C-alpha cells in the first residue's frame, strides 16, 4: 500500500508540473460592485439587521471555502455576491467563489466542502437565537396579513421552544429581521449540504465514499423529486440536480481515505443537515 501511495504521489507531482495550476482571473472591481449591490438589495429586503446578518452568513460561508482552498493550494477567487432584490425573499441569490483545477486529495475535498457550511452555520445559530429574543409573539388574528409564513426546521423549532416555550395554537411569532436572517442561513446551509453532485454535501459524500457516492446522489435526487410533488417550489432544483448533479469529478489522490476525525465530523455535518432542512420552506397560510 505504501508503494502504491508513493507512486501515486509522484504521479500527482508530475501532473502538477506538466499542468501548473493558475488562479482564476480575479476581478476586484466586480467583487466590490456586486458586494455593494448585494448590501443594498438585502437592506431593501429586510432592513439593517437583516442585511448585516445575512451578509455575514454568506461571507463566512464563502471565506470558509476560500481559506481551505488557500491551505491546499487550490486556486480560488474571492467571493462574488449575487444581488437579486425582486421576486426573491432573501434579496440575494447568495455568493460563489470560482475554483480551478482538480482537488489534490479526498481529504482536501472534504475540508474545502465542509468549511463553508460549517462557518455559515456557526454564524446562523446566534442570529436565530438573538433574533428570537427580539421577536414578537402575537395573536394569529392580529398577525394575519398578505405575505407568507415560514416553515420550521427541527433546529429552528428547538430554538423557538427554548426562547418562547410552547405557544398556544392561536398565537404565532413575528420574526425580528435578525431571526429571519438566521432562518435563511440555516435554509441555505441545508441546501448546500444536500449530498448531491458538486454541492458541498456532494463533496463531503464523495470524499467519504469515492465513486460509490453516485448511488447516494441518485437516492437523494429521487427523494427531492418526491418532495417536489408535495411542494412544487423544489421542482427547479430537482431538474437542475437531475441534469447536472449525478456525477462528481475524482480527486488526484483517490487512495488515501479520510481519517477518523473527519469521519466523525462528517456524521456531525449530516446531523446539521437533518436538523436544518425545511421540507416546506414557504407557505401562504397556516
Features:
mainly alpha, 10 helices, two-stranded antiparallel sheet, 286 residues
Would you kindly provide a written description of the structure presented here, covering whatever features stand out?
With 286 residues, this protein is mainly alpha-helical. It has one domain. Helices cover 62% and strands 7% of the residues. The protein is built from 10 helices and 6 strands; from the N terminus they run ααββαβαβαβαααααβ. It has helices at residues 2-18, 28-72, 106-133, 140-143, 154-164, 177-192, 200-209, 213-230, 235-244, 260-276; strands at 80-83, 92-96, 136-139, 149-150, 171-174, 282-283. A two-stranded antiparallel sheet has the order 1-2. It has a two-stranded antiparallel ribbon with strand order 3-5. A hairpin with an 8-residue loop joins strand 1 (80-83) and strand 2. Helix 2 packs across helix 3 (106-133) and helix 3 (106-133) packs parallel to helix 5 (154-164). It is globular and about 60 Å long. The N and C termini lie far apart (59 Å).
